[in-house]
Amino acid sequence: MKLNITAISNRLIWFITLIFLVLSLTISFALGEANYGAYVLFVCLFGLIVCYLVREQGRITLSFNWMHMYMLLFIGVCYLSSIDALDPSVALSRSFDIVKIFFMLIVLYMCFLREKSVDSLLKIGMWTGYIVCFYAVYYYGVDYFINVLSSSTRIANEALNANTVGLLGANAIVMTVYYMMYEKPHWWNIIALPTMGILAATGSRKALVFVLAGIVLLFIFKSFRSPNIVNSLIKLVAYLGILTITFIGILQLPIFSEVLERMSSMVDAFSGTGGDSSTIVRMTLVDIGWDLFYQAPIIGVGIHNPSVYTYFIFGYENYYLHNNYIELLAGTGIIGVITYYSMYAYLVYNMLRYHDFHSNEYVMVFILLMFQLIMDIGQVSYESKSTYFYMMLFYMEVQFLRAKRGALHGHTNSIKQRNEIRQ
Questions:
Q1: How far apart are CA 378 and CA 282, in angstroms?
Q2: Dihedral through CA 206, CA 209, CA 212, CA 214, nearest 10?
C-alpha cells in the first residue's frame, strides 16, 4: 500500500500544533518546580518543522505579511519601553518572550499556509479548550469538582487560572454548537455537557457571558440566511424564545449559583452599592494602571512592569492588571496600544469589508474576533501563545475572504466582457 506522505504530514502537523497549544497553557503547572517547559515546546516546534519539510520535500516557503509586520512593530515597542522601566530586566525578558512567540507564529503560518479554510485551526482551538478543561479535572480530581459544585464555590488557581479554564471551555462549547448547527452530529458533541459543569466550577463570569452571547449570535446569523425578511424575523423570534427558555432553565441549576452571585456582585460594584472582593480588586488595578499611564503616557513604564508595581501593593508576583488595554497602556504607553491593536483594527476592517454572512466559517470567526476584543477588557492576553494562534486564524480568514471576493469580481468582469463582445 502506497503511503500518502502529504496526508500523514498534515495530520501530524495538526496533532503537534494541538499538543503545542495545550502544553503552552498547562506545562508550567504540570512540571511544578521544573523549568524545562520551554525545551518541550521547542521540541514541538522542531517536530512541526520536520513534518513541514517532509511534506514539502525539503523546500521552505516563507511568507512575510501584515501580521508579521505588526508583530515586529510591537516587539520593537516592547524593547523601547524598557528604556525607562522600573525594572528593565523584566521588560527585556517579556520582550524576548514576544520574540519567541513571533518565531512560533512563523512556523505555524508556514505549516498552515496551504489550507483552503480555517476549519482545521478552529478544531485545534476547540479541542485545546476541551483538553485543558479535562486536564484541570485530572489535576484536582473528580471528587474535588463535585465538592466545588455542590458547595457553590469555585476552583482554585493551582492547576491553571480559573478564568482561563472557563474561557477555554466556553470557547470549545460555542464551537461545538457551531459544528452541531452546520454539520451532522458527532459523538464528541456530548463532551460539551460535562464541560458546562467545569465552566460552572470555574465561576468565570466572562466564560458564562461568552457561552450565552456566542450561542445567541450563532442563531441570529443563522436566522437571517433566508432571503425572505419575514421568514428571517419569524425564525429569529423562535430561536430567541427557545434559547431564552433553555438558558433560564439551565441557569436555575444549583451549579451555576456561584457564578450568578458573582455577576450580581459585579453589577453592585459598578453601581457603587457593594460588590465582591474580586471586582473591587480589578477596579483598583484599573486605577493603578491609569496612574502608571499618566507617569509615562508615550512609551509606558515598561512592558510587564505593572506587575512590579502591583507586587509592592499586593505582594503577589506577576500580578497583572486584569485588563489587556490598561496593561498595555501602562506598560507600553499609547504607542504600544496603537501598535498592538492596529493588527486587530486591520482584521476588523477587512472582516467587515469582505463580509460574507452566508459563510458558516465567517460567522464563527467573526464572533471569535469580536469576543477576543471584548474579553480583553477583563483579561491580559498579549503574552499568551494561544492569542497569537487565533490572530493567525483571523488573518488567514481575511486572506480567504479577499481571495474569494477577487475571484468573484474576476468572474463578473469576464461575463461583462463576453456580453460586450456579443453586443
A1: 8
A2: -70
156 and 172 Cβ atoms separated by less than 8 Å: no
Contacts of 210 (CB under 8 A, 6+ apart): 167, 170, 171, 174, 371, 375
- Which residues have C-beta within 8 Å of that of residue 379, sequence separation ≥ 6? 163, 164, 167, 206, 322, 323, 324
Q: Where are the alpha helices (DSSP H) in 252-276?
A: 257-271
**Burial of 277 per CB tally in 10 Å (0-12, 13-18, 19+):** exposed
Q: What is the pLDDT of residues 189-214, one digit of tens each?
A: 999 999 999 998 888 888 899 999 99
Give the whole-angstrom CA distance, residue 19 versus residue 139.
Answer: 17
pLDDT digits (tens, 9 = 90+) for 318-367: 788 989 999 999 999 999 999 999 999 999 999 999 988 888 999 999 99
| Ranges 186-190, 289-293, 317-321: which has the least confidence | 317-321
**pLDDT tops 80 at residue 262:** no
Would you state the torsion angle of the CA atoms of residues 236, 247, 167, 363, taken in this order, to the nearest 10 degrees? -10
* DSSP 8-state assignment for residue 83: T
Rounded CA-CA distance 192/177 in Å is 9
pLDDT of residue 188: 86
Find out whether 75 and 100 touch, Cβ atoms under 8 Å. Answer: no
pLDDT digits (tens, 9 = 90+) for 2-12: 468 888 999 99
Grid coordinates representing 284 are: 483598583
| Rg of the chain taking only CA atoms, in angstroms | 23
Q: Which residues contact 301 (CB under 8 A, 6 or more apart)?
A: 81, 84, 85, 86, 292, 295, 309, 330, 331
